[in-house]
Design goal:
The chain has 393 residues and is α/β, with parallel strands linked by helices. 42% of the residues lie in helices and 16% in strands. Strand 1, helix 1 and strand 2 form a beta-alpha-beta unit.
Amino acid sequence: MKHKKELSVLYIITKLELGGAQKVCLSLFEGVHQEGIQSFLLSSADGKLVNTVINNPRAILLPALKREIALGALWQEFRCFITMISTIRHLKKEHPGLIVHTHSTKAGIMGRWAAFFAGVQQRIHTVHGYAFHDHQSRLSWWLIYLAELMTSFVTTHFVCVSSADVKTGIKLFPWFAKKHSIIRAAVDWQQFYQPARTALPTPSATQPFIVGTVACFKPQKNMFDLLRAIEKVYHTDQRIRLEIIGDGDLRSAIETWLHEHKLTHIVTLHGWQNHIAPFMFDWHAFALSSLWEGLPCAIVEARLLKLPVISYTTGGIADVITHGTNGLLCEQKEWAKLADAILHVMHDHKLYSQLQTYNDDLYDFKDSAMVSEHCSLYQSLNEKKSLQKNTPR
């Protein structure tokens, strides 16, 4: 049996921005190392989380690795790919049993193929939602799907964070059913769980009712549906307030929309925050209007703080939120129904209390549980590889 100290894993992710996939990747990078597995990280030199690893000798930052696919700079993309192969090959010489574990779409595709050409036998990819979805052109869908399909043939194992991603994978990729696991994306349990055991926010008939969300300002998060919903609520009940933690390319468009609709006094843009729990302590509910997701960590964080969740039924959200039990769900793009749901929890105090106090089972989202399950996965894959190698043909 292989011991943990004989295992080594290289995590590859495109950009260390403030996102769920990035936080999961960094948690694994540090967590498995503490459990005795030698870990390395390969990423671009961009993103707000780069400072957390820039001085770590086990972190490799490639400035040429960009999140966007630069079709006008294919030579640079090719050189970056060759550099990845060389980097992985060098690590493999020092650590013959190296496992490569990728996160995010572009790094996932490039990283798995680079690992394949570098001779790495165990190539794992975590699916944080798929990059092909119903809200893009058919050409884009097919191009991304075909890239993922071809890469699936050099993938030895998939890790999914939601049951929805498993269903999609089984439907669209050969042999996916035989080479996948569900391991939940962990959140900072201590930051969110401890406050949830103290006093809970209680809505008042005279004080503002604060709805909050955590999201990057990208088309994926569909922020304008949430803003439209808040505007509709405001015309019925002027107690409503919206606080947004996040930032991104669409910030100026969001600010313009708020000015045009005269809602700047009820919507607060906090920007990115390294510690979001202190902001969430004062919220009364959490809302999300995403069009495609894996299973957003913010949903779990909200429930650890006992916030009723009002959301579209997107991706794996239904794995955590059950309509009428710990939140209210509605179909995508039905922003008027999202508004109605917010009004419902504002005015129905019995329902609000029921949603708030529901006892969620979120143990699988603990960082310690996630790290432990990954360590077990790495060991089992390594043992399976050794068994196959030593079995006479």
